[in-house]
Description:
Elements lengths: L2 H10 L6 E6 L2 E5 L4 E8 L6 E2 L1 E8 L3 E9 H5 L15 E2 L7 E2 L5 H17 L3 H8 L2
Antiparallel strand pairs: 1-2, 2-3, 3-5, 4-7, 5-6, 7-8
Helix pairs in contact: 1-3
Amino acid sequence: xxxxxxxxxxxxxxxNIIKDxxxxxxxxxxxxxxxxxxxxxFIASEVQGKYDxxxxxxxxxxxxxxxxxNFLFADIIGMQSRPNGYDPIAPHMWDNANPxxxxxxxxxxxxxxxxxxxxxxxxxxxxxxxxxxxxQFR
Length: 138
């Protein structure tokens, strides 16, 4: 298991929202309800190899993509202080010389939980029958 898979598991693997999560590399897929699936993926929003975002895609199993949203780590947990006193930097994982991935500056366990909670709150909206009904009439 590489670092990306460990981080996916830590942030999203143990919750009551995504059922039967399957994690491979930087991607997690799972079931939200009878008709809806979710795909989460660590992506690089600006610089190749610097994974600073979770992309969430809600998929209807028969009609395709319902909605998608990008969650930038810095928007959720803020910029990270560098130990050498230089300007803060956006939190990200990167390949560097290690294709298995590593955090550039390790966020706290609470910060990782905050990222997970934010993305899972988004996913949970689609499990609400009232919200799903409103989506059909847009």
